[in-house]
Amino acid sequence: MEYVNLGRTGLKVSKVCLGTMSFGTSQRGGIPGKVDEEHAIEIIKHALDLGINFFDTANYYALGEGEEILGKALKKYANRDDVVIATKLYYPMHGGANAKGLSRKAIFAEVENSLKRLQTDYIDLYIIHRFDYTTPIEETMEALNDLVRMGKVRYIGASAMYAWQFEKANAIAKAHGWAQFVSMQNMINLVYREEEKEMLPMCQYNQIALTPFSPLAHGVFNKPYNAKRVDNCGKLQNDYILEHDQEIIKRTYEIAKKHHKSASQIALAWLYSKPYITSPLVGGSKTKYLDEAIEAMDIVLTPEEIKYLEEPYVPHVQYGFR
pTM score, two decimals? Predict the structure, then answer.
């Protein structure tokens, strides 16, 4: 396993991050999972055996069950100081007017709940899941800074927002001498590259770690390019995939056949080929998907193959955080 710095920090993370959004099967609410606890723990243990030390979850995954499963597995199979735990907050975890968002009240309440579920006394990377338009960003950044100073959080990051929002938040933090965001978790894949316009150049310039989610575009590379697809949120994939995207998927299968690999591995290899990508989030319901993700790190795409894959791309409506 290769380990890299998380952006401009000294924190070392594996080049593959295990995403745990699919873990949990309870009916509590939140983002529903599909992998029961027994199999989820098996996947986490397998990730550890492969050398993965970076694990991503969120309080909203199965309304806390995802964090509970991750905490239980790491408690049993890992040394806490050897692993890097990232979790997120923003979405409502209960009823009431203050259940959602990034107010000081919400942040202080949710960090304690996450710590309990994860069975740890600190979170390595605490990420705001979405931008909160109802709370002053100064309030959010000061509260996050206080968590860092208290030792409950080591680093802070952000996910899925406009580049100007990220830059504004960090500028405010810098002006006050507060902790700044060191990572951005946004959607980047072969059929969705809108972040290349502003967010990626900004992150590269400021040495911000990029830990993209949905590297396989909600699973579009797991079936033949002309197949009908439904993602894990129940949205018809054909509404998301444009005609030009179908051509990209078709070309991905062509390159996969040439390399004797799967289309999903080629999609990951494309992402690995980008030096600005720190560690993509790789999820899955089976251990073999992790094996395939690791194998994809050894696939070397030629400049001509990369150009061939990227050539059909056309601009999309920004998706994933509005």
Answer: 0.93
- Pair of tokens at residue 26: 């309870």
| Domains in the chain: ranges and CATH | 3-221+277-286 (3.20.20.100)
| 205-237 pLDDT per residue, tens | 999 999 999 998 888 887 665 655 544 433 434
With a CB cutoff of 8 Å and minimum separation 6, the contacts of 181 are 156, 157, 158, 166, 169, 170, 173, 208
Residues near 259 by Cβ (< 8 Å), separated by ≥ 6? Answer: 265, 266, 299
DSSP of 86-150, one letter per residue? EEEE-S-SSSSTTSSS--HHHHHHHHHHHHHHHT-S-EEEEEESS--TTS-HHHHHHHHHHHHHH
Q: Sign (positive/negative) of CA torsion 236, 265, 186, 63?
A: positive
Q: Are 95 and 127 in contact (CB under 8 A)?
A: no
225 is catalytic: no
- Give tens-digit pLDDT for 19-28: 999 999 877 8
Q: Which 8-state DSSP code applies to residue 15? A: S
Candidate list 61, 90, 126, 313, residue with the active-site label? 61
Give the span between the Cα atoms of 256 and 262, in whole angstroms: 5
